[in-house]
């Protein structure tokens, strides 16, 4: 019992123990890798939102139209494509054949570490990591938008003579984003799980590749430390999602 309390006290103080393989503090290993993973995950989330929200809106504005079928087809294709397969296909197309993007790593082998080089290396892994998120979020955005467009206040706004674009953007999109924000918050664990495969394929020096290395070497303190980090990240993301609710819907208030 005392050892358990001692371990919990050390955990609350940020002491995650020492790595078995490198004998370095686990917190130091994680902090050295958390930056690249945070950069990659945030880029994937932004890219997913920028693609899925417009596609969902376009599909919902004119249901059962050609663009609705195209958006639905794209979402199904992205949602059903595994990360590792999408990564290999994109590497073959853009790195091997076209040679316009690097196939892996965070910087070039020349040793130069500029922002432009880093962004070029981040394009493919961020795109792969956002594939399945785009596929799911397009469908949720379309469904939510269709429900909102049937509400009475939308018909009232149309009856007042407001332009169709203003009705859609001002009254429809903002209210339809509330359930989508919930889905985005719930997708964070799967995003972190996808980063394990994506970082390994693209040799991205983040938490995912550290997790794979630690599993291979049976470095249990590092594995437990990464698990704790992921759990805390999920809790913080859920808290941020709850705060965003209040921004999207003035009726929601926190006392």
How are helices and strands ordered from N to C?
HHHHHHHHHH
| Multimerization status | single chain
Number of strands: 0
**Percent of residues in β-strands:** under 5%
Helical content class: over 70%
**Count of helices?**
10
Sheet of most strands: none
Distance between the termini: 38 Å
Q: What general outline do the C-alpha atoms trace?
A: globular
Low-confidence sequence ranges: none
Radius of gyration: 22 Å
Query: What structural category arises from helix and sheet content?
Result: mainly alpha
Taking all residues together, what is the mean pLDDT?
81
Explain what you see.
It is a single chain. The model has no long low-confidence stretch (mean pLDDT 81). The chain is mainly alpha-helical. The chain is built from ten helices and no strands.
Present the secondary structure layout:
Layout: H1 2-12, H2 26-61, H3 66-79, H4 83-97, H5 115-149, H6 152-159, H7 164-186, H8 188-201, H9 207-217, H10 220-248
Please give a handful of descriptors for the protein shown:
10 helices, 77% helix, 255 residues, single chain, mainly alpha
Short characterization:
The chain has 255 residues and is mostly helical. The protein has helices spanning 2-12, 26-61, 66-79, 83-97, 115-149, 152-159, 164-186, 188-201, 207-217, 220-248.
